[in-house]
From TrEMBL:
Signal peptide interval: 1-21
A Pfam family recorded for this sequence: DUF6851
Keyword field contains Membrane: no
Protein name, as recorded: TS-3
TM region(s), chain numbering: none
One MF annotation (Gene Ontology) recorded for this entry: peroxidase activity
SUPFAM superfamilies: Acid phosphatase/Vanadium-dependent haloperoxidase (SSF48317)
PANTHER family the UniProt entry points to: PEROXIDASE-RELATED (PTHR34599), TRAF-TYPE DOMAIN-CONTAINING PROTEIN (PTHR34599:SF2)
Swiss-Prot/TrEMBL keywords: Signal
Source organism of the structure: Laurencia subopposita
Residue ranges occupied by any DUF6851 domain in the UniProt entry: 112-215
């Protein structure tokens, strides 16, 4: 696969934690053993045990919207510490903060501020993750539950940063905490009234609206069945964009592919269009090589492809001598913030259009139009 050939040893090191579906959890170590590799290679190069708790795979491998939101928050917490140690750099929130020099100048103390900060956020925005990360940090002698407000200490400064991050993201329109008193709302649940017009389980040939979306029913082949859901459909309406005003973002609309998407039958104009596209798809698929299929699988997984793309470019610049090795982590933080902002706003727009059009998936149409084949 050509993508694999382009990877440098540095990039492979940076990706290793993310690619392990089930990390091998090592036994207890000292604080320095756990964190020291991070001080050299960056935040995902700590011990396997450390990485499995602070960058948990069940979060990294969750649905794409949650990966994007988590990735942005993770980048923000590292940027906040970086900015607080640089008088020329503003925080994510536009403030000019100053962290005590004894915390900035000691790499271990500085890294601990980052660790305490993200754990603070985990406990409030991703509670199931926060329970495990808190227990882990306590097991290596740290005090993640400290309520200190003394900004002269690492945990006190982290509490200041974490509280500010949580205050912003709990009101970012994702409903990340849910509203249990309102219709038993769970975290990230929809409160905008979205509902598919087609029920799941109905044969494709009997859909009320054949060009509109139908949730598919999937199975593990062991008697368990799962109905698809439009994950966080509310973000297209309620989430805050970062890079431009919301009204400007929502002006960017896409034209739907069908002339009559809400009819109870497929109009001949739309049927002709669908059949033409389907046959084109079949023709392209028949000519795919194994390497092209591998590349498609690679780019389809946003964790392995789009997510670490900044690490890929940084690794290439290090190999070419354009940046010093010791600057890897700082540069990746800056690129991750830029990438995270762009991905977040692109996803908000995509989710808005996905909800607005609410169109059938290709497999639903193909099953309907080609069921005799």
């Amino acid at each position: 696969m050509r993508v694999a050939k382009l990877m440098s040893p540095v990039l492979l090191l940076l990706l290793s934690t993310l690619i392990l579906a089930e990390p091998v959890v090592e036994g207890p170590k000292t604080l320095l053993d756990e964190i020291q590799p991070e001080l050299i290679y960056g935040p995902i190069a700590g011990s396997n045990r450390h990485s499995s708790y602070m960058i948990p795979n069940n979060l990294v491998h969750s649905q794409v919207p949650f990966v994007v939101r988590w990735g942005l928050i993770y980048g923000v917490h590292r940027h906040e510490v970086k900015a607080a140690c640089n008088s020329q750099m503003l925080s994510f929130f536009g403030t000019n903060d100053t962290m005590p020099s004894h915390l900035c100048n000691d790499p271990l103390k500085k890294r601990l501020v980052e660790i305490y900060t993200i754990n603070y956020v985990y406990r409030r925005e991703f509670p199931s993750i926060g329970v495990r990360s808190t227990q882990y940090l306590m097991s290596i002698g740290l005090t993640p539950l400290s309520k200190s407000t003394d900004r002269n200490t690492g945990v006190g400064y982290a509490n200041f940063l974490g509280a500010r991050i949580v205050a912003y993201f709990k009101n970012d329109g994702w409903n990340s905490r849910g509203h249990p008193r309102i219709n038993y709302g769970r975290p990230f649940s929809d409160r905008t009234g979205y509902k598919p017009v087609n029920d799941p389980g109905i044969p494709e040939s009997k859909l009320r609206y054949p060009l509109r979306w139908q949730p598919l029913i999937q199975t593990d082949l062991l008697g368990n069945f799962y109905t698809q859901h439009h994950v966080v459909p509310q973000i297209g309406i309620t989430a805050k964009p970062f890079l431009m005003p919301r009204h400007e973002l929502l002006k960017r609309k896409t034209k739907g592919p069908y002339r009559y998407p809400s009819r109870r039958w497929i109009h001949r104009v739309d049927r002709k269009n669908i059949l033409r596209q389907a046959h084109k798809l079949f023709s392209i698929s028949a000519r795919l090589t194994r390497s092209k299929i591998q590349e498609a699988f690679w780019w389809d997984n946003k964790v392995y492809s789009v997510g670490p793309i900044s690490a890929f470019y940084v690794a290439q610049m290090v190999q070419q001598g354009l940046i010093p090795f010791e600057k890897i982590a700082d540069i990746i933080v800056t690129l991750a913030i830029a990438e995270g902002l762009a991905m977040h706003d692109a996803m908000v727009l995509a989710w808005h259009e996905k909800r607005r059009h609410d169109l059938a998936r290709p497999q639903t149409l193909i099953r309907r139009l080609f069921r005799k084949n």
